[in-house]
Design a protein that fits this description.
heterodimer, A: alpha/beta, Fumarate Reductase Iron-sulfur Protein, Chain B, domain 2, Rossmann fold, four-stranded parallel beta sheet, 24 helices, globular, B: alpha+beta, Uridine Diphospho-n-acetylenolpyruvylglucosamine Reductase, domain 2, Alpha-Beta Plaits, five-stranded antiparallel beta sheet, 17 helices, 20 strands
């Protein structure tokens, strides 16, 4: 990224309109943990008035990178970009091995699978305390993720479906592929329901977590590889908000390279793609769900991609389902990539706040469009007695056709 | 590092056990509260060295985040015992440096005091801690069809405590009045650390109106920790129109004619060409080619009244050569217009790295003349200016935009501001409508008030504040040691 960090920070005129949108500021009341404060600290460090490692780093570390401040900012300050470049700078000055290892583990399917398998041999259910202490100095809060099992869905008969209109690529991702294989299954089914089939290719990680956590070089490398793996001019469908947000910004990440810009332009979050291609019409003939549901905005959908209404429109179209509004729906749940491992205390506070808001709606299902939010909120739901089921938006949509029973969580 | 107040002790004399370094002071405060409630060190000092008025900057020694009135009182008493200045701070969205830690010392942030303590729907009032954002009050009582009427443009973030300090206005003050008319009572930690309750749930009460002094006291008379606020019903019907003009004169004439016709709209706002570029970029606000000024006019109340008032407004606009009159079709469009208006100044970061928003008041009849003057000053000083303001109140907000990395531009911005506000006084107006004096306009108080007036105000201040430790160097220009200090904080660039 050739963007001048100082130039990016000068767009903040300190009006403070971001303050109440920032989860860490709302929790702490501390302006160093607010977007305005962090931008000010970064700008001061560039000017040599503050020290990057001692003065600035702890506050950037506590940032979720949820980018709610970008939605609130009237001056269009590119906070996400400021954060990524500043983190990259800090990381280059003084690399953190434990974080690198965690990133590598989460974003490499083979390593992740092995770690999860080995992890089951360890006592307890949390992320190993050693990793947590290395990263945050605190005890772990996040449970070790348990991979979803694939479901045995009924056969989709071509004669009940619209003719095939075209092919798309589907980003399988790294963590998503291992942890939420069922979401990929339903993505393929829903795409087929509106006339699209997936062109399968061998692919890798998109680099989103690397970019968010200060390793822009690796993010670029992974991004370039992903672009090469999907060379045809076909839509790229993404069902993980964090990945979609990063891919849509590949142009910035790769300094305006035309291939990156073009790839970004043909990338769609699955909810916007399905809405634009007639899923609402298809849902009219679905059997529907007699349920009350609510929707949690994944930050990288609502703030990173400005996708707010599309998933809600789709869910509202499910026959017999009642969609109820969620208070603070677009406030981060605390998962934020690897944040619930690097900052367990703050992540836990935000999770409890999120869960309380969800519980207050009276809904029995909460839908969301990102694997991080999915597993984190599901942990809270387990801890609070499994009264609420957490589903990916697409799982809820497919359940409208095939029923909820296939989406029960089964212990492995 | 040695504490500022030791070198320039505002009241003279030293106290034997007074902490002598920033770290010692922070440690003492940590013992008083908890370590989590105290922020200190280089980053904290930097993050709290100014509010949204960025021309003047001064580091606090430490910041505390108390959670209750009692904790605030503890801190204030400790400051008094140790001769340390203290300054209350809410969201830090002020535009005159009202929360600048002018002599260093302790910043008392109210941002962990954000709870609503009681809602009395029957009597239409609510008790909240002072750190709650203005908008959150209205959100909490929306279900009862009520809201808190004062709506400064910063209301999504600015706190009720800050609104009380500055006696904030907002677009709807034209009809509903300013903050002071909506505050029933406060809990105040006075400058000695005593907890006082002024007013209460019910309006009125005999005796002197100290509450009226506190509201608009800019935090110099104590720290407001809780407030009883009045709630009013959300109007049954609202109509909002955006009217474009090809000349500023036609727009200002419309404003005068509407008021003269005996119509009091809920809001009567004006935007000039300078701000239109920013709001178009930021919010996609559309306006016809050749528009030099826009008026945003809102009527509210019973449906019939709203319809007839809007009809009168439209007729007056047409008579004054309006290019286009667009009435918002639905709530969504109406909300969009208001976002553009309220966040308009915030959008100026798209154009320049820094802004200073002024706050002069003039008689409405002088609006065209004053605007001409503002443009002339900006041109002469070679700085950009945009205007977006409460035309119905004659409350101007010229917003200068500039690059604060250039000390000469900062100097010219300060000069231009002084010229404009001096002109406001000459035209029979005031140097502040709602942003307060803070440190920004302290030198202009002498132009507005005779020495005897200022002395009377100083005497009133001493009822509460004899030690001069409570938010020093604000509002009144006659505090010892501040003149010297002003040189240190004024115009601190990057």
């Amino acid at each position: 990224m050739n963007h001048d960090l100082e130039e990016l920070t000068t767009h903040c005129i300190r009006c403070g309109f971001c303050l109440e949108s920032c989860p860490t500021f709302v929790q702490t009341g501390n302006e160093m943990e607010s977007p305005r404060g962090r931008i000010y600290l970064v700008r001061s460090a560039i000017g040599g008035k503050l020290n990057w490692q001692e003065d600035v780093k702890p506050h950037l570390d506590l940032c979720l990178g949820c980018r709610a401040c970008e939605t609130a900012c009237p001056s269009a300050v590119q906070y996400g970009m400021i954060l990524e470049i500043a983190r990259d700078k800090i990381e280059k000055e003084k690399p953190q091995r434990a974080k690198d290892a965690l990133l590598a583990g989460t974003t490499n399917p083979t390593i992740l699978k092995t770690q999860l398998a080995l992890g089951r041999l360890l006592p307890g259910k949390r992320v190993p305390g050693l990793i947590s202490h290395l990263l945050s100095g605190h005890a772990a809060e996040a449970d070790r993720p348990t991979p979803q099992q694939e479901a045995h869905f009924p056969f989709l008969d071509d004669k009940d479906l619209p003719a095939i209109k075209g092919e798309v690529y589907l980003l399988e991702g790294c963590a998503m592929k291992v942890l939420y294989p069922r979401v990929h299954q339903v993505t393929r089914r829903l795409l087929r329901r509106v006339g699209f089939v997936v062109k399968d290719v061998s692919q890798g990680c998109c680099g989103a977590l690397h970019a968010h956590y200060g390793n822009l070089t690796e993010a670029r490398k992974l991004g370039e590889r992903l672009i090469k793996s999907m060379p045809d001019n076909l839509p790229v469908i993404v069902n993980s908000a964090g990945c979609g947000s990063t891919i849509k910004e590949y142009g910035h990440l790769m300094d305006g390279q035309s291939s990156a810009e073009a790839f970004a332009k043909r990338t769609f979050d699955v909810s916007e793609f399905l809405l634009a291609n007639g899923l609402i019409e298809a849902l009219q003939s679905a059997k529907g769900l007699n349920q009350t549901a609510t929707y949690h905005d994944a930050c990288h959908l609502a703030h990173g991609q400005k996708i707010v209404s599309q998933p809600r429109e789709l869910i509202s179209a499910i026959p017999n389902l009642k969609l109820v509004p969620l208070n603070e729906a677009d406030m981060c749940c605390g998962s934020a990539g690897i944040y619930n491992v690097t900052q367990p205390e703050m992540a836990r506070k935000l999770l409890e706040r999120k869960y309380d808001n969800i519980a207050q709606t009276g809904a029995s299902i909460v839908a969301t469009g990102n694997p991080g939010c999915h597993s984190w909120i599901a942990q809270a739901a387990r801890e609070h007695g499994k009264k609420i089921q957490v589903l990916h938006t697409l799982e809820l949509l497919e359940a409208a056709f095939v029923g909820l029973e296939l989406f029960e969580e089964k212990p492995i | 590092m040695i504490l500022t107040h030791q070198q320039e002790n505002p009241i003279g004399g030293t106290i034997p056990n007074m902490p002598s370094t920033h770290a010692e002071l922070a440690k003492a405060l940590e013992r008083l509260l908890t370590p989590e409630a105290v922020l200190s060190g280089a980053a904290a000092e930097r993050a709290y060295d100014c509010d949204a008025y960025t021309v003047d900057r001064s580091n606090p020694t430490a910041v505390v985040l108390p959670e209750s009135t009692e904790e605030v009182a503890k801190v204030v008493r400790w400051c008094c015992d140790n001769n340390v200045p203290f300054t209350a701070r809410g969201a830090g969205t002020g535009l005159s440096g009202g929360v600048l830690a002018a002599l260093g010392g302790v910043v008392i942030s109210t941002k962990r005091m954000t709870r609503i303590l009681e809602i009395d729907v029957e009597n239409c009032c609510l008790l909240a801690q002072s750190g709650i954002a203005n908008k959150r009050i209205s959100e909490a009582v929306k279900q009862f069809g009520l809201h808190f009427a004062p709506d400064p443009s910063s209301q999504t973030v600015s706190t009720i405590g800050g609104n009380i300090g500055e006696n904030s206005g907002g677009p709807h003050t034209l009809k509903y009045g300013i903050t002071v008319q909506h505050i029933l009572g406060v809990t105040l930690v006075d400058p000695r650390g005593e907890i006082l309750k002024l007013g209460g749930k019910l309006a009125g009460g005999p005796g002197y109106d100290f509450l009226g002094l506190i509201v608009g006291g800019e935090g110099t008379l104590g720290v407001v920790t809780e407030a009883w606020v009045k709630l009013v019903p959300v109007p049954k019907a609202v109509a909002t129109a955006l009217i474009a003009y090809s000349t500023i004169g036609d727009a200002t004439k419309t404003v005068a004619d509407i008021i003269a016709a005996g119509t009091i709209p809920a809001a009567l706002e004006m935007m000039d060409r300078g701000i239109l570029q920013a709001v178009r970029l930021a919010f996609g606000l559309q306006y016809p080619e050749g528009a030099e000024a826009l008026l945003l006019i809102e009527c509210d109340g019973e449906p019939e009244t709203v319809a007839s008032e809007m009809e009168i407004v439209k007729q007056i606009c047409t008579r004054n050569n309006a290019l286009e009159i667009r009435v918002a079709a639905d709530e969504a469009e109406r909300a969009k217009l208001w976002v553009a208006r309220k966040k308009g100044i915030g959008a100026m970061g798209r154009i320049a790295p820094s802004i200073v928003t002024h706050d002069g008041v003039i008689p409405r009849s002088k609006l065209p003349e004053m605007l001409e003057f503002v443009y002339a000053v900006a041109k002469r000083q070679q700085i950009g200016v945009a205007n977006l303001f409460h035309a119905g109140d004659g409350n101007l907000h010229p917003c200068f935009y500039f690059d604060d990395r250039d000390p000469d531009q900062i100097r010219r911005v300060i000069e231009a501001g002084e010229e404009i506000l001096t002109r406001c006084i000459e035209l029979g107006g005031s140097v502040s409508g709602e942003h307060g004096i803070g440190v920004e306009k302290i030198d202009l108080m002498k132009l507005m008030f005779a020495p005897e007036d200022l002395e009377l105000q100083a005497t009133s201040k001493r009822i509460f504040n004899d030690a001069m430790l409570c938010n020093p160097c604000k509002v009144l220009p006659n505090q010892k040691s501040c003149v010297e200090h002003q040189k240190r904080w004024r115009g601190t660039g990057w």
